């Protein structure tokens, strides 16, 4: 088998290594941004909710707002951790594969990158379903009111 860092493949190898470095940096920045968001959520006081605007009792309205905010922070943290894992794994395995001329590590790294894109594909599909449901609900609301 030919070594990974052979001269005829140097431009491809350099671009893969550059991509791995950028992926590692973006994984760390993404994780730090999410941790900052969680800290900001935990340290900031809850937003005041006026019950009259929501049509609920005072206690029920504040519980709905607080639980929705908590769920969004929790889901954001899970997505960020998954993205960090796959991107950082891609970065680490790619760098090691070129350091040790190991093609199997490069294949594992590319599978990790594929997993990252697969996760974002599923997330975008779920978001598209929610937007479609909101659009249909808006149409039905305008028809029956």
TrEMBL record:
Superkingdom, taxonomy of origin: Bacteria
Keywords noted in UniProt: Membrane, Transmembrane, Transmembrane helix
Entry's transmembrane regions: 22-44, 64-88, 109-140
Name of the protein this chain belongs to: DUF996 domain-containing protein
